[in-house]
């Protein structure tokens, strides 16, 4: 039962992501990638990691892919994209790397036999709690570092996007706008 | 996994599908009637007694209408988008306990399709996928209004997911579980979440506001604002494809009403018949409130909506979570 | 609704007042104050209460049109009617052609001949209602009160040609004999107190 589900979802995931890479049509790529993200969450569910599975859906499908779609709206998504084929060396290197990666992944179970979990899953604790316990004990420092990194990214985003936010072009006079433009030109750096 | 369980689940799925598809139809009827009464009109009156058969007439019209796929659209995506909206709306119903468990012909029925231990997160996740209906439909339509609507839909959805998540965090922290059944049991013992704790009340209000954005109902009805962007993502759709968008929207309204009633207003309480009726009454009130605001309140601008989300609701929600954490520590 | 109420329905004391628009808030503090004031003054709930009050009062103003109809004014200009003389029941139209002449959308067409009694007789008379703008000039200019605007405002048909038939507009002969034909009080008709207003006959000038 589980094996059937695994192979089904593995097949679907690979098909979806292959389509994402191969398609000339931006919308097809977008939707198949979103579908692939959902398929990946199926693996989490199969491993009884319900919490991570749902988080995968919410974060990747709900937020990240939606933001991709947002960026995609600057293009005409109903037309096919003309591609520039990259040099063959790059393609070959990447394929070789991917092949090595696949071999490594396939050989993982052999190595995993020698690994024992340092923090085995405590009995009688539901999934989200287990995630929380691991997150705030073993992985506390990486977790906090990631949080700080996100904070830095957020502040940087605000700085980049928030320039001149206190000024409104509709409420400014033409001379003021011209003056603003001139000041920007003199300063060379717009911030 | 025995056969009885599979059969029971299948029956429950079919019942939920049928009941809520029909309720979506009745929802449109109620909406038209309530809006009409509030505007001193009569609403639909001609088809059947008091216009009751209007639902059937609408259904026949939608089913028999020509299914137009305009030239220039991205065909497959265009066709699949309404299905996503309707399907995700009904998928969210899987983790909702609609009634307390009851015994029929000596067989105990749990009126919840799948009691997953992360119920509320599951609902949030599936509703997040529901965004793809309007988004893909709008982007595939090759229509500028649809595109604007898709952009607004994506922006609103991503923003209000934050408020929804943060406001749900407070009851999650208080109850300590993600299952809706646990929420119900906790409130049966300790009183309604919205009134037992002041933080619960704040998060109730925040979640309620965000629910309007998630379902795209009137104060935040920007994805399909008739007077500026026609029907938004639905502009190019016709017939039953458009009808699927509609069913999805109304089913979403019902399900989010259920979620609000169960998480914040005590659900079905102790599980008696009165409790079950109480749950249905609460859901009916929330649904009525969706219609009520549509009659009374104006729409806000998209920038005001974003402003409200990021500068008012999200800070409030974060402060609320922090206060709850402090209170729970001591 | 009676006719009097109907005609007076828009008459009343209108209290117009100018909406006072405050200046837009400039600084952040002013914006914050405005938002707090608006959020806490309960305006949203006033709106909710108003619509709820109307729902409870259930003062429905819908006219269920095909079942009930509003009365129309006597001067309403709907589809034309051709009147008959009261005593003999013959057509009032004398074929003078004034209506054809004055019609600004050129939709009236008539043909006449001299009959065996050497009287002018109308052989063809059509009004193309697809073109007619219902201005009422024909009724006003008619010296015999023969063509008038009736109260029939619902006209549907399978073909546009059905709108031009003289026979449909003419009062049926049996109705005229029974005296059921109503004199037209409206547009272009002689007003009831016309006798008092006429000082001299035109010939006296």
Question: What would you say this structure looks like, in words?
Answer:
The complex is a heterotrimer of chains A (191), B (330) and C (205). With 191 residues, chain A is mainly α. Chain A is 72% helix and 0% strand. Chain A contains seven helices and no strands. Chain A is extended, with a radius of gyration of 24 Å. The termini of chain A are far apart. With 330 residues, chain B is mainly alpha-helical. Chain B has 13 helices and two strands. In chain B, strands 1-2 form a two-stranded antiparallel sheet. In chain B, helix 2 (54-64) crosses helix 11 (239-263) and helix 6 (144-175) runs parallel beside helix 13. The mean pLDDT of chain B is 85. Chain C is an alpha+beta fold. Chain C has a domain at 80-189: Alpha-Beta Plaits, CATH 3.30.70. In chain C, 27% of the residues lie in helices and 10% in strands. The model of chain C has no long low-confidence stretch (mean pLDDT 79). Chains in contact: A-B, B-C. Chains A and B meet through helix 2 and helix 3 of A and helix 3, helix 4, helix 5 and helix 6 of B.
The stretches of 5 or more residues of chain B where confidence is low (pLDDT under 50) are: none
The Rg value of chain C, from CA coordinates, equals: 28 Å
Within the CATH hierarchy, at the fold level, what is the topology of the domain at 80-189 in chain C? Alpha-Beta Plaits
Give helix and strand order of chain B, one letter per element, not per position.
HHHEEHHHHHHHHHH
Number of strands of chain B: 2
Instruction: Profile the largest sheet of chain B.
Output: 2 strands, antiparallel
Number of helices of chain C: 8
The count of strands of chain C amounts to: 4
Average pLDDT, all residues of chain B: 85
Mean pLDDT of chain C: 79
Classification by helices and strands of chain B: mainly alpha
CATH class of the domain at 80-189 in chain C: Alpha Beta
> H/E element string of chain C?
HHHEHEEHEHHH
Strand content of chain C: 5-15%
Assembly context of the chains: heterotrimer
Low-confidence stretches of chain C: none
Strand content of chain B: under 5%
Helix content of chain B: over 70%
Helicity of chain C, in percent? 25-40%
**Secondary structure tally, helices of chain B:** 13
């Amino acid at each position: 039962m589980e094996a059937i589900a695994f192979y089904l979802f593995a097949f679907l995931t690979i098909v979806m992501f292959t389509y994402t890479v191969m398609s000339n049509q931006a919308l097809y790529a977008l939707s198949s990638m979103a579908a692939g993200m959902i398929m990946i969450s199926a693996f989490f569910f199969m491993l009884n990691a319900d919490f991570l599975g749902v988080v995968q859906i919410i974060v990747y499908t709900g937020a990240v892919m939606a933001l991709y779609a947002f960026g995609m709206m600057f293009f005409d998504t109903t037309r096919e994209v003309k591609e520039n084929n990259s040099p063959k060396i790059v393609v070959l290197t990447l394929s070789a790397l991917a092949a090595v990666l696949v071999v490594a992944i396939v050989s993982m179970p052999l190595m995993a036999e020698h690994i024992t979990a340092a923090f085995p899953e405590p009995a009688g604790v539901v999934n989200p709690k287990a995630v929380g316990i691991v997150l705030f004990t073993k992985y506390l420092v990486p977790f906090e570092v990631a949080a700080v990194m996100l904070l830095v990214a957020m502040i940087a985003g605000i700085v980049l996007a928030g320039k001149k936010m206190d000024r409104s072009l509709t409420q400014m006079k033409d001379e003021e706008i011209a003056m603003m433009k001139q000041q920007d030109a003199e300063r060379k750096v717009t911030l | 996994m025995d056969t009885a369980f599979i059969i029971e689940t299948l029956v429950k799925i079919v019942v939920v599908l049928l009941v809520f598809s029909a309720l979506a139809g009745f929802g449109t009827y109620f909406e038209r009637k309530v809006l009409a009464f509030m505007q001193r009109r009569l609403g639909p009156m001609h088809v059947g007694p008091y216009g009751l058969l209007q639902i059937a007439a609408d259904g026949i019209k939608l089913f028999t209408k020509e299914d137009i796929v305009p030239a220039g659209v991205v065909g497959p995506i265009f066709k699949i988008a309404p299905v996503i909206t309707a399907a995700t709306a009904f998928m969210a119903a899987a983790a909702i306990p609609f009634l307390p468990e009851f015994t029929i012909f000596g067989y105990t029925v749990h009126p919840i399709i799948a009691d997953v231990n992360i119920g509320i997160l599951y609902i949030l996740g599936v509703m997040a996928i529901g965004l793809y209906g309007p988004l893909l439909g709008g982007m595939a339509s090759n229509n500028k209004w649809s595109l604007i609507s898709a952009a607004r839909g994506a922006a609103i959805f991503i923003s209000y997911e934050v408020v929804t998540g943060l406001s749900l965090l407070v009851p999650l922290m208080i109850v300590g579980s993600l299952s809706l059944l646990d929420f119900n049991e906790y409130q049966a013992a300790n009183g309604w979440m919205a009134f037992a704790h002041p933080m619960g009340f704040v998060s109730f209000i925040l979640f309620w506001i965000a629910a309007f954005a998630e379902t795209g109902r009137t104060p935040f009805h920007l994805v399909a604002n008739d007077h500026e962007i026609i029907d938004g993502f639905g502009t190019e759709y016709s017939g039953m494809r458009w009808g699927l968008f509609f069913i999805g929207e109304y089913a979403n309204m019902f399900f989010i009403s259920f979620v609000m009633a169960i998480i914040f207003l005590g659900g079905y309480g102790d599980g008696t018949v009165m409790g079950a009726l109480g749950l249905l009454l609460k859901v009916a009130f929330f649904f009525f409130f969706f219609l009520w605001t549509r009659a009374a309140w104006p729409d806000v601008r998209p920038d005001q909506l974003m402003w409200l989300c990021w500068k008012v609701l999200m800070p409030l929600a974060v402060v609320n979570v922090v206060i709850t954490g402090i209170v729970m520590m001591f | 609704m009676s006719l009097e109420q109907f005609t007076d329905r828009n008459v009343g004391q209108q209290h117009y007042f100018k909406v006072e628009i405050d200046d837009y808030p400039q600084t952040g503090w002013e914006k914050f104050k405005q938002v707090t004031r608006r959020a806490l003054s309960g305006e949203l709930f006033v709106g909710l209460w108003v619509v709820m009050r109307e729902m409870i009062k259930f003062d429905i103003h819908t006219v269920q049109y095909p079942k009930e109809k509003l009365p129309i004014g006597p001067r309403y200009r709907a589809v034309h009617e051709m009147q008959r003389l009261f005593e003999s029941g013959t057509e009032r139209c004398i074929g003078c052609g004034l209506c054809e002449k004055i019609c600004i959308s050129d939709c009236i067409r008539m043909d006449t001949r001299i009959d065996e009694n050497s009287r002018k007789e109308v052989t063809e008379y059509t009004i193309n209602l697809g073109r007619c703008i219902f201005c009422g000039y024909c009724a006003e200019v008619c010296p015999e009160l023969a063509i008038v605007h009736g109260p029939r405002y619902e006209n549907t048909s399978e073909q546009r040609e059905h709108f031009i038939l003289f026979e449909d507009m003419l009062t049926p002969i049996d109705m005229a004999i029974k005296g059921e034909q109503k004199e037209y009080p409206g547009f272009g008709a002689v007003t009831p107190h016309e006798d008092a207003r006429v000082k001299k006959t035109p010939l006296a000038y």
